[in-house]
Amino acid sequence: MRKALLWFVFCTTALSAKLNTSDYLMDGITEAFTSSQNLTLLGTAAVSIFALRNYDDDIQRYSQKHGLMSNTLSHQLDLYGGRWAYPALLGLAMLKSGTRDEKMDRLLFSSSAIGVTMMTTIVIKKATGRLRPNGENRRSFPSGHTSGSFAVAAVVDELYGEKAGAPAFLIAGLVGVHRIHDNEHWLTDVIAGAALGTIVGRGFAAAYRTANNDDSSRLVPERHSRPIMVRLVIPIH
């Protein structure tokens, strides 16, 4: 299978020199990995991975023999999960009505959720070193396309509600199926990616709500503050 490499610029925008992004990032990460809802999801995913790990080979063989979707659909989902979902999300965050500060809040929320998801995915990939089903490399666990797509869905759900969030989660699930269909990942890689993206997205959603409910800790600065440029580039596969 062809090697996919995404260099995504999450955020190139004016923020304030007064902005303490470290506190916001820490709040999002803390919420992601300590909230009871997310811990329940993590536990469920862990049990599922343990229970289904012995079926990875069977599902891989079935998917390669019979296919799980059309190759055309699989290609479109590859483009979505590996490329277009992320700039589209940032664009939507800026296009939604609101003040300049509100748009900057949404941009920081979106880029932070995706960035932390991708960085966590890369760290776990390097730590586990699991061989892909196609034997291409040892970056199989978890699925980056899947984790990123589920993080996008969690952000969309927070910003636009379940009417937009539900279809976004459905598409994210299809991205996971596509990764199995394309022989890039095992089933358990996809389960792990889905759980990771969801909990990080939900964690930053909680931090976003908290920050915006507290006028004394707005995410973005006052207009007169000196701006800095923030640029984050992360490769995933």
Automatic annotation (TrEMBL):
Pfam families assigned: PAP2
Gene3D superfamilies noted in UniProt: Phosphatidic acid phosphatase type 2/haloperoxidase
Keyword Transmembrane among UniProt keywords: yes
A single GO BP: phospholipid dephosphorylation
Protein source organism: marine metagenome
Major localisation: membrane
Recorded GO MF terms: phosphatidate phosphatase activity
InterPro entries: PAP-like, PAP2/HPO, PAP2/HPO_sf
Any one GO cellular component localisation term in the record: membrane
Keyword annotations from UniProtKB, A to Z: Membrane, Transmembrane, Transmembrane helix
Membrane topology label: Multi-pass membrane protein
SMART domains tied to this protein: acidPPc (SM00014)
Protein name: Phosphatidic acid phosphatase type 2/haloperoxidase domain-containing protein
Family statement drawn from the similarity comment of this UniProt entry: Belongs to the PA-phosphatase related phosphoesterase family.
Location in or out of the cell: Membrane
Domain Phosphatidic acid phosphatase type 2/haloperoxidase, chain residue ranges per copy: 107-205
